[in-house]
């Protein structure tokens, strides 16, 4: 079933849904803002495997920006899933290149 936008106006569409339900239906994007599971398995849904790196990388334009609110271990797993090698990440006062 095609996802319904949570908010939409010209040039802006926000979805509040599981990424696996939304990503197959959207055109390439300039920005991804995500709060994936922390991967500490405190709940059934708290598993990094629910992040589909293949789908996510297909919808991100080459020069897209991603803001990812997550724990450090999940950040590295996300980098691996998205095959981000030459990327810059800032963690509080720490910057990883």
Description of the molecule:
The structure is a single chain. This protein is α+β, with helices and mostly antiparallel strands and 97 residues long. Helices cover 23% and strands 28% of the residues. The chain has helices spanning 19-22, 53-59, 72-82, and strands at 7-9, 12-14, 29-34, 60-68, 89-91, 94-96. The strands form 3 sheets. It has a two-stranded antiparallel sheet. A two-stranded parallel sheet has the order 3-4. Strands 5-6 form a two-stranded antiparallel ribbon. β1 (7-9) and β2 (12-14) form a beta hairpin. Residues 92-97 have low confidence and may be disordered.
Helix-strand layout with pairing:
Elements: E1 7-9, E2 12-14, H1 19-22, E3 29-34, H2 53-59, E4 60-68, H3 72-82, E5 89-91, E6 94-96
Parallel strand pairs: 3-4
Antiparallel strand pairs: 1-2, 5-6
Any low-confidence stretches, pLDDT <50, length ≥5?
A: 92-97
Secondary-structure element series? EEHEHEHEE
C-alpha Rg, in Å?
14 Å
Cα distance spanning the termini: 39 Å
Q: Main β-sheet: number of strands, strand sense, barrel status?
A: 2 strands, antiparallel
Strand order in space, largest sheet = 1-2
Shape: globular
**What is the average per-residue confidence, as pLDDT, rounded to a whole number?**
75
Number of helices: 3
């Amino acid at each position: 079933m095609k996802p319904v936008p949570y908010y939409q106006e010209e040039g802006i569409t926000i979805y509040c849904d599981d990424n696996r339900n939304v990503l197959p239906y959207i055109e390439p994007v300039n920005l991804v803002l995500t709060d994936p599971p922390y991967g500490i398995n405190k709940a059934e849904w708290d598993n990094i495997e629910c992040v589909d790196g293949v789908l996510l990388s297909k919808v991100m334009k080459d020069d897209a920006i991603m803001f990812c609110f997550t724990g450090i271990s999940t950040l590295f797993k996300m980098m691996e899933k998205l095959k981000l090698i030459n990327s810059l990440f800032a963690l509080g006062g720490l910057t990883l290149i």
